[in-house]
Amino acid sequence: MESRHGIRLPALLKFIVLLFFINTCSSSPHNDLLALLSFKSFITQDPSSALSSWNALNNNTSNGTQSFCGWTGVTCSGPLSSGRVTALRLRGLGLVGTISVHLGNLTHLQALDLSDNKLEGEIPPSLANCIMLQNLNLSINLLSGTFPSTLGRLSKLAVLSIGVTKISGSIPSSFANLTALTFFSITNNYVHGEISPWFGNFTQLTVLNFAINMMSGRVPPTLSKLTYLEVLGLTSNKLEGVMHPSLFNMSALVLLNFGSNQLTGSFPPDIVFTLPNLKLLAAFYNEFEGPIPSSLSNSSTLQKIILHGNRFSGLIPPNIGMNGHLTVFEVGNNRLQAVKPRDWDFLTSLANCSNLMSFNIELNNLSGVLPNTITNLSLELQDLYLGGNQIAGHVPASVGRYYKLRSLQFSGNLFTGTIPSEIGKLSNLHNLWLDENSFRGDIPLSLGNITQLNLFQLSSNYLEGTIPATIGNLSMLTFIDISNNLLSGQIPQEIVSISSLSKSCNLSKNALSGSIPPQIGRLVNLGILDLSSNKLSGEIPSTLGSCIELQFLYLQGNLLQGKIPNDLSALKGLEVLHLSDNKLSGSIPEFLENFKLLRSLNLSFNQLSGPVPKEGIFSNESSVLLTSNGALCGGPIFFHFPACASPVVPGSSAQQRLFHILIFTIVGGFSFVTICVATCYYINKLRSNPDGSSGDNGSTFATEPYQRISYAELSMATNSFSEDNLLGRGNFSSVYKGIFSCGGHSTNWAVKVLDLRQRRANQSFVSECNALKRIQHRKLVKVITVCDSLDHNGEEFKALVFEFISHGSLDRWLHPSTDRMERLSLVQRLSIALDVAEALEYLHHRIIPSIAHCDIKPSNILLDEEMTAHIGDFGLAKIMNTGATGQCLGESSSVGIKGTIGYLAPGM
């Protein structure tokens, strides 16, 4: 380059011009173009082709301004020749990739919305260079890492929304500089630490949302300075302590949600006057106590009251629905009461709420007859929960008017009468709970019309008749439980053909008969099948092997026979297999050794024979029960089965003669021993009963069948198994006094509840049942019935119910704890000793096979009002083998020390 005078410009001037050009480009729209192209290059998937127009080759101006200002999601300011990017909005496009660090070069950017995509990686700290930024929304992505502390430099930021991602760590202290914020939401992340008091300095905030994180500590009272705050979301964190009263004085609040924490204290009685604009009050699953403020009835704006899972007590305010605006009223799982009919007046006021959709008062202390006003609620009702109370009376037929109902829950109450057939009109119902009541009569055929039903729960009632085949119409059913009733007849093949059943099918504890339908193989997705404690006969269907998702299979307590089918080898996901108390024969399948997930196997009380496998679950003594089978042999040593003999194969004539002699000797010897035992027993019986009477030596045999009893009845009789009703505790159980009412009369029984967390509690339960079903004697504690069910938490529950022996154990009389209890006289001690001896003589010599108690001690000897002794607690009892000589032998010939280790009873 030369001047007009022909003089060449120096190289330094050329360098200065070049620097000027570069500087001009860096502050020009061209830099925005490069930042946008960089962003696109980090996007690996663009399913909607939203960025297809982002192409540097399609520029229409020298610097490309017109091109990128027309790109999808890009907003510019200024003329086309010098416009700058002020907004980038790419919401909900399904973009996959990471966020380019070069977005920080968009120095004029005011709004960045990349929400509802699938962006990964960390938030670039370089976004702090966008000093004009006012709106930053990165919510609903897969972002990880922590919050960049550099974002605290964005002094103009008004909206910060980074919720529903995977951000962890704590909130940087630099965020205290973001005093221009009006919207702050980091919901649904893994953020921890305390809520800093400096949030109270964000005086322009209208939304503050920390929900679903791991925030801890107390809620700072400085938040009460946020006079414009409309939404405060604190739900599902680890916040604790008492809510400061000033936090209930934020008059602009519309939505207040601090549920699912560990907050304590009570609500101020004038809460509705200090929060006059409140529409949502949610404090579920905390530890709040005291009454529900009656002032809530005066709110003209309140729409949702969600207070379940606390310790609120007293009455539900009678005018709670007076404003007529409530759509949700949930106060379940508290300590609320209703005793008198007027305590139910809140139902009348809620009838004013024409848009009420959810009504939940379950798990409280509400009692009395359910008022008919329950059917005056809104026709918009979708969820109705009354379970877990002491509500009596009949379910009104007009409950069928709630045609929008999705969930109907009346379980765990005292309802009687029949199940209204009108429930079959609830065509939108998804969940039906009527279990643990006293419903009688048949299962209505109309229930088969609820084709949307997913969960069907009618267990623990007194339902009779057969299972209607119309239940097979419930093609969306995933869970059915009609156990513990009085149902009879065969299992309809329609029931076991519902292919949607995936969670549980429980028909146990009824009187169902016939064979198991082969169509049961259609339940290919089922996880739990329980047909136990019925009268089912025939063989186990081989089609059961098609139910490959089974984890729990209960067929015990039936009349099943034949072999365990080899087709069950396909059930490799089994965790529990119970086939006890049947008539199964053949050998134990070897494939059970290969079930890696199997943790409980019960094949006892059958007619199985042959070798016991040694591998897999059979190597764990506590996981397998094989008692009372015909001819098992071999197996691990702890089973104490005899060794499996090599079979005698007749060959030569000498071998055949030896074989015949052996058979003759065994049969003859067995016959001779049987005749001798029978003769001795008959002579002994004549000596003890020379008059030819029945000779049971005081035995009393019940002529009526055992009464049926449910977990709910036991819980009610023992006041929810309270300590006030506790009579004593043992290694495997606790005994409570129960007061049972029938026909206007009250009866005291003793309820022995097994602690199934103990390692051998189940074995103790089986031992006691096996002993008690063989014995009845006036000097033995009389068993009334057995309860084998589920508790309110769905956990296994086992209990035995005995006659109540009023004067307690002998141990209390030998060592009285109070001066008021008189001591036993010598005559009384001698009489008690004779009673115990008489009972033991009966156990050892009057029944075949004899029974050894194995734990005789004063605490197991009970005294009635006449000071007659009765032996109880047969949890360690053993049925004696015919060859036993005073040892505590099980039916499997196991020998071991039983009873209270190191115990020596004091002298009487």
UniProtKB/TrEMBL annotation:
Keywords: ATP-binding, Cell membrane, Glycoprotein, Kinase, Leucine-rich repeat, Membrane, Nucleotide-binding, Repeat, Serine/threonine-protein kinase, Signal, Transferase, Transmembrane, Transmembrane helix. One of its GO terms (molecular function) is protein serine/threonine kinase activity. Its EC number is 2.7.11.1. It is found in: Cell membrane. ATP binds at K752. The chain crosses the membrane at residues 658-683. Residues 1-27 form the signal peptide. PANTHER family: OS04G0122200 PROTEIN, OS10G0336300 PROTEIN. Belongs to the protein kinase superfamily. Ser/Thr protein kinase family. This is non-specific serine/threonine protein kinase. It comes from Urochloa decumbens.
